[in-house]
Structure formats: C-alpha cells, structure tokens
What we know:
With 71 residues, this protein is mostly beta strands.
Amino acid sequence: MGMFDYVNYRADCWKCGTPLAKFQSKDGSCELKILEPHDVDYFYSNCNSCNAWNEFHVERECVVKNIRQAG
Length: 71
C-alpha cells in the first residue's frame, strides 16, 4: 500500500516557472493510483528547481445537464 496517489496535472511552479508534473494527493485511496484533479480536494508538488511548495485546492461547481419532471 502506498502513502498517496498521483494526480494527472501539469502546471508551472508559481515561484520560478519550472514545469511540474509529479503532483500527489492523500484524498484518494493512497494506493499510488493516478487520479484526475476532480477526484480530489487538494494536490501538491515540490519544485525540484527552487524547492517551492505548489499546492492546489479543487473547487467544484454543480452543473445541471437535464431536469425531468417527477411523476
């Protein structure tokens, strides 16, 4: 069993601009699975170039695709 899951996301470091791709999260099953950002609440990575902590909070919104009348 792992201690975290990976998150399939790419972003540049907020401090130095280095591309980051090895994001992790502990919001899933922590079995070293690859999750999508919408599967977690928080994910993070440490920049290997400048050592800055890069953390993202996922905000979701409800989108109604179809409304049916009950009955």
